[in-house]
Amino acid sequence: MSNTLRILLIIASFITTYWMLRKIRKSQIKIEDTIFWIAISILLLIISVFPNIASFFSRLMGIQSASNFVFLFMIFVLLLKVFMMSIKISQLDHKITSLVQEIAIRNKEFDDQLKKVLSTSENH
Questions:
Q1: Disulfide-capable partner of 58 in 63, 67, 74, 83 (CB 3.0 to 4.6 Å)?
Q2: Which pTM was predicted?
Q3: What is the mean pLDDT of the chain?
């Protein structure tokens, strides 16, 4: 792994960690989501400080260079994150649909009861 890539990984790790901690302080992100990004930052930092880890896994998997392994690994991790977020979005979309339907039913029931009360009060 080249020194340039190692330096870029270290800088990216620190920037990501700083940014996530700042978002937590401003209450703009949940701590559970931040843990993922800080873990990725720490992993990148470890790989950049100890490049033999990436070299070992690249040889083990038959990948020609350690930098290709790092990029492939990060793409894989980010695809997993996108997949998990898609599942979460689908669940939230289902909940929103259910809530909208429930509110519509309650509004209809309320309107029906209001009409019934108004019609009986007009008759008296």
A1: 63
A2: 0.68
A3: 88
